């Protein structure tokens, strides 16, 4: 049976620049195709500039600034990668606190590539097993997590389900795992407009 995310609001939490294009667009499309409601949250209103490695690609409109929404209004969160994106996002206390609240409230999360930097910053990886871009291995292990080199890893050994992948090549497995995890979470408690 196909995963159904009907009515589930999914926060895509990013910085306003440096987001790895495919790591934003591919899961966004997968969630939309399965009836979920993705929303792009960033520190500032306006646009998000995506990249492929270091080359600028497309811009996307921000749905809302992070500090104007409540984590309780969302059913899941996705943290795409991109070195600049992830490095900037972890410096925004509102973004880190948003993710902390999602985790502590047992809502599923999906991180890819450099995306785990925000959960490292939020002290959310201790006792968890995850994968990432290889250069984050030391950050994850220093934060008390176990790093594995896998296409996708699903960790349920914490307050929430955590789906992680290494890089854009892993997107098919990442999308399939996050769709399963997000569809198995509690149904949305409110109607979307």
Please describe what this structure looks like.
The protein has a single domain, classed as Rossmann fold (3-Layer(aba) Sandwich). The protein is 30% helix and 26% strand. It has 6 helices and 12 strands. A hairpin with a 2-residue loop joins strand 4 and strand 5. Helix 1 packs across helix 6. The longest helix is centred in the C-terminal third of the chain and has 14 residues.
What does the overall shape look like? globular
- Count of alpha/pi helices: 6
**Largest sheet descriptor:** 7 strands, mixed
Distance between the termini: 27 Å
CATH topology call:
Rossmann fold
Name of the CATH class: Alpha Beta
**What is the ordering of alpha helices and beta strands?**
EEHEEEEEHHEHEHEEEH
Strand content: 25-35%
Oligomeric state of shown chains: single chain
The whole-number mean of residue pLDDT values reads 95
The beta-strand count equals: 12
- Look at the structure and name the CATH superfamily: Class I glutamine amidotransferase (GATase) domain
Strand order of the largest sheet: 6-3-1-7-8-12-11
Write down the domain tally. Answer: 1
Please identify the structural class as seen in this structure.
alpha/beta
The amount of helix comes to 25-40%
What is the compact description of this entry?
By secondary structure, this protein is α/β, with parallel strands linked by helices. The protein is built from 6 helices and 12 strands. β11 and β12 form a beta hairpin.
Walk me through the topology.
Layout: E1 9-13, E2 17-20, H1 21-33, E3 37-42, E4 47-52, E5 55-61, E6 64-65, E7 76-79, H2 83-89, H3 93-104, E8 109-112, H4 116-121, E9 129-130, H5 137-142, E10 146-147, E11 152-155, E12 162-165, H6 171-184
Parallel strand pairs: 1-3, 1-7, 2-4, 3-6, 7-8, 8-12, 9-10
Antiparallel strand pairs: 4-5, 11-12
């Amino acid at each position: 049976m196909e995963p159904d995310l009907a009515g589930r609001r999914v926060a895509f939490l990013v910085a306003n620049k440096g987001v790895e294009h495919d790591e934003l667009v591919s899961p966004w499309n997968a969630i939309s195709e399965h009836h979920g409601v993705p929303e792009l949250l960033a520190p500032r209103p306006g646009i998000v500039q995506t990249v492929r490695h270091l080359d600028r690609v497309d811009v996307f409109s921000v749905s809302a600034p992070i500090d104007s929404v409540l984590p309780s209004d969302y059913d899941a969160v996705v943290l795409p990668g991109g070195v600049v994106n992830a490095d900037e996002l972890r410096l925004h206390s509102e973004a880190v606190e948003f993710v902390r609240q999602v985790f502590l409230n047992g809502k599923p999360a999906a991180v890819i590539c450099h995306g785990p930097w925000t959960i490292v910053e939020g002290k959310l990886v201790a006792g968890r097993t995850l994968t990432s871009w290889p250069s984050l291995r030391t950050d994850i292990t220093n934060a008390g997590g176990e790093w594995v080199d896998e296409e996708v890893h699903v960790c349920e050994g914490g307050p929430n389900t955590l789906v992680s992948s290494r890089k854009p090549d892993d997107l098919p497995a990442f999308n399939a795992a996050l769709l399963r995890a997000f569809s198995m979470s509690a149904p949305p408690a409110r109607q979307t407009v």
